[in-house]
Amino acid sequence: MSLLGAFRVSASGMHAERYRMDVISVNLANASTMRMGDTPPYRRKEVALEPGPDGTVRVRGTVDDASPFREQYEPGNPYAVDGVVQYSNVDPIDEMVSMISAARAYEANVAAFNMTRAMLRSTLEIGAV
């Protein structure tokens, strides 16, 4: 792989992890939404990635998490059906763990990008001598 190819791989990884962090942020913002009448609660989203040519990664989009909604007994809630209210299937703790993982993967891609840049700079300095 060429040095420019290494830049592309790192950049695609940074893009994918940034997208993943954006989706996680939306999930966290909607973690406490509930069913309101006929409108279901927010359904957790996951990022779908696919390998690209030459070792890169591509964001295919998002997919809905099919896990069941969280149900809580709240007989006084006006949106309760038989005393039960449905809440989003987002688990804030899992989302925070995913956010940390995405941030670390992003940092690893930045480190690889910077290392590639340093190697390219060294190559140019050797050629200039």
SSE layout:
Blueprint: H1 3-29, E1 45-51, E2 57-64, E3 70-73, E4 84-87, H2 92-128
Antiparallel strand pairs: 1-2, 3-4
List keywords for this structure.
single chain; 129 residues; alpha+beta; two-stranded antiparallel sheet; 4 strands; 50% helix
Overview of this protein structure:
With 129 residues, this protein is an alpha+beta fold. It has one domain. Helices cover 50% and strands 18% of the residues. The protein is built from two helices and four strands, in the order αββββα. The protein has helices spanning 3-29, 92-128, and strands at 45-51, 57-64, 70-73, 84-87. A two-stranded antiparallel ribbon has the order 1-2. Strands 3-4 form a two-stranded antiparallel sheet. A hairpin with a 5-residue loop joins strand 1 (45-51) and strand 2. The longest helix has 37 residues, at 92-128. The protein is rod-shaped. The two termini are 25 Å apart. The model has no long low-confidence stretch (mean pLDDT 94).
Provide a quick synopsis of the model:
The chain is 50% helix and 18% strand. The chain has 129 residues and is α+β, with helices and mostly antiparallel strands.
